[in-house]
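mind reviewing this fold:
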Amino acid sequence: MLERRWSPGRALEFSAVVRPLRRGPGDPAFQVDARGTWLAGNTVAGPGTLCVRVAGGEVLAAGWGPGADVLLDGLPALLGAEDDDSDFTAHHPVVAEVRRRRPGLRLGSTGRVWDVLLAAVLEQKVTGTEAHRSWRELARRFGVAAPGPAPDGMRVPPTAAAVLGIPSWEWHKAGVDHARRRAIIGAAQVAGRLEGAAQLRGVAGRELLRKVPGVGVWTAAEVAQRAWGDPDAVSIGDFHLAGLVGYALTGAVFDDAAMIAALGPYAPQRHRAAVYILAAGLGKPRKAPRFSPRDYRRM
């Protein structure tokens, strides 16, 4: 076991900063118990597990496995230490109010692309229930056990190499359709090169990800938000985001074009503005039934 203590030196809303890394209830790579928040992931040094808790304004972390050093070195960035919001200006009262009330709401970055890319592709054009089920199935069948005294059943997501070895019927059993499977395999074949997106950052990093067939604007933005805390990566094409932004700002439901126009004054920090807007919790009224999850295992 390796340990690290880190003092943020400013407000830190820990749970909100790490929440985007959790892929639904029962995520095998993200668990919380009395000991702290547990995260399992792949690094250049191998799999690793991180357990993090906050006590007295100080962050206490422990790591296990070959990737422990990498995960502990990345702890400050994971919790938003590299997030610079000094040039951000609120242009709407709801944004200004959330920013005032929640100064510890930061954009964290893992510094690693593959794990978040795999999860983001699984979330393309399906319900969260479907995507999270597939994530759990793939992690349990093709990931490795999380190193250290992690909670029971905790797993490291499958590596790119492991993904390339998954036979077609196993994809079907995990509920992953052909389009998403093709995009994941394409990304796995060039996973080493895609890690460079986290160093390029910004538009260049997102464009590198989009060179993979099947990785579009939405998927690249979802990865950029988590892998390098991209403050301008808006999830264009998201089923809910435009409507939630529109309702919070004007009381009307926006489409993507209207959302981008409304967020225009916030460039190059449009994603940060969207985070503040969502944090306000002003959900739009539901006027239609929820989509029923599809089970590709039965097709």
Q: What stands out?
A: Residues 119 and 135 are 7 Å apart (CA to CA). DSSP finds 16 helices and seven strands in the chain.
